Amino acid sequence: MRFSSNVKPYVLLLIVGIFLLLGYVYFSFFSERLNRDILIDEDQKRTKLLYKQPSVLVGRTDVVSVTPWLAPIVWEGTYDPVLIDNIYKPMKLTIATTVFAVGKYVRFLQDFLETAEKHFMVGFNVHYYVFTDRPDDVPSVNLTQGRHLSVIQVPVSNRWQEISARRMEIIQTTIERQIRREADYIFCLDVDSKFHARWGSESLGRLVAVIHPGYYEQTRDHFPYERRPASTAYIPMDEGDYYYGGAMFGGFVEDVYTLTKVCRKRFEEDAGNSIEAAWQEESHLNRYLLYNKPSKVLSPEYLWQDFKAQTKEVKVIRFSGVIKNYAEVRPNV
Ligand code: UD2
Question: The whole model's pTM is what?
């Protein structure tokens, strides 16, 4: 194309000017993107982590690792511990851990704490809240950096059922008073237990429950849910997902707060009607989780019992209840 000779020079200048302006805008935008890309690249170099390629086709086939509502069920071999730690550790999280040691149960604290220091959320900030009526008997255990322990005095009761169930109320009020300002996640654990292997960041989630080791092979009609409609923990025979253990529940502090508040309210409502659920707060927990599905479910690796022989699908026992003489440690039988 030829410019006709009658095109005025100022029109030509205008066209050239527009092209220059467009060129400037394009190149400045492009070079900004280029710079940003380089930055991202450098960033990736700094955090580069080599790990095994995840497969879409090969994985564990002997267990189910996802619930029907698509929450993960955490089993050995379904996650990469190094990769998952690499995601959570930079967040500098604090994990609150509540444990009750009332009456003679104070004797279980030493092993609980010593084994937790070896295996539980290693490399994370952990704040243990020990609830006891015997503060002087709380053992002094060496805690690694970033880990703290607070002792909180609670009343004793002459019924073990009451001690176990009132944990909901006490956790609720302690979250209100201090935990919600001091931690990001919380785990509420039974004291008569020991850690045996890694329990790490793979267990973190909004609302976390554990499958009870005694019932995972059974059908729902065999679960020891509360079956009396008069109780607020009632679950009919044709409902229920898993039987969850009362020895562990956790998640974001605010989600656990709501759980404890609701369970405490229902426990008290039942008490007002002279009814105590079959397994106290465990029954209320199961009812709550049926209608408020956990976002992560821990396999029985995370709650075993020493008296139970290891089964083939449980490749690692991470946390297990010790064998205890009920008549000797409890205030009543
Ligand atoms: C089951 C549950 C437990 C709870 C209970 C029903 C599992 C493995 N355990 O265990 O979590 O739901 O049924 O109430 O799922 N405690 C004291 N002093 C006492 C009695 C209890 O401190 O005198 C505390 C202590 O932290 C103990 C917890 O309450 O670990 C639960 O009591 P338990 O272990 O005696 O209950 P158990 O074995 O029947």
Answer: 0.87
